[in-house]
Amino acid sequence: MNFIPESELIIRPGGQIYHLNLLPEQIAYTIILVGDQDRVSFISSYFDTIEHKVQSREFVTHTGYLNGKHLSVLSTGIGTDNIDIVLNELDALVNINFQSRTPNNEHKSLTLIRIGTTGALQEYLDVDKPVYSKFSIGFDGLLNFYADRDKVTLVDMEKAFVDFTQWNNRWAAPYFVKSADSLFNKLIGNANFGITISAPGFYGPQGRVLRMPLMEPQLNELLADFDFNGLKITNYEMESSALYGLSLLLGHEALTVCNVIANRKKKQYSKDYQASLKIIIEDVLARLTE
Q1: Which CATH architecture has domain 1-108?
Q2: What is the number of other CB atoms lying within 10 angstroms of the CB of residue 35?
Q3: CATH number for the 115-290 domain, one of 3.40.50.1580, 3.40.710.10, 3.40.50.720, 3.30.470.10?
Q4: What's the pTM value of the predicted model, to 2 decimals?
Q5: Cβ atoms of residues 99 and 11 within 8 Å
Q6: How do the domains of the chain map onto residue ranges?
Q7: pLDDT in tens, 76-92
Q8: Which residues face 197 on adjacent strands?
Q9: d(C-alpha 214, C-alpha 171), whole Å
Q10: What distances in angstroms separate CA 153 from CA 120, 135, 140, 143, one per listed residue?
Q11: What would the pLDDT profile of 133-169 be if each residue is shown by its tens digit?
Q12: What number of helices (H) and strands (E) belong to the chain?
């Protein structure tokens, strides 16, 4: 039966999953994930109709239709720890019977597209342009807590990376995971793509120095030089590794596209990243609903 106790799957008195505060009927099977809760209403303003609006903490969900396509948009907040909550609870909504507290006999797969912002590590990546994450490296260590981690990670890439960087053993073991090919091919168009790092912080873990020195001051230069079969590390963000890894373990499809708002190599920052992000959002919505 695989009965899941109340302490492990927390359901509110009204039948909603604990953190997201959602009922199973309140989400679509195609979900756009964003970090910023204010971005949810911006994206849902494109919908033809909105069925549900739900908020709990930083988790805001709008579900409706665009061009006949059933869509949800959900804010995750920042970090892979939040993605762990969001992915597990979204999966529970479609793959666990809340009454019997057992997994459903039929598995249902979600399509998950993260739209975010990023800092580029390669000089050729222009500010205010999208970059798609074909692969993601987790510096966060989250996937290492799950038993089947090695079944979904790219061990050859991990080994090459650890050897090349002489990875500091004080840090979490990095893991490499891949986006869903079907989503990547459907959405990318002619945009740039590469390997995205998901960092466990915004400052030190991404090589920023304010008042504290770094353990490895030259790490960003080393990361930019890493090459695996012609594929380079392109950018930093903070969510994709957990999104890809957990999606692979749970049987869902995931892809991240980020607007480059800073080029770390050229020390450039966008003058108006909201305008360029709007273009990316519109392109993703058009490709999803065509």
Answers
A1: 3-Layer(aba) Sandwich (3.40)
A2: 20
A3: 3.40.50.1580
A4: 0.97
A5: no
A6: 1-108, 115-290
A7: 999 999 999 999 999 99
A8: 137, 236
A9: 13
A10: 23, 10, 14, 9
A11: 999 999 999 999 999 999 999 999 999 999 999 999 9
A12: 8, 14
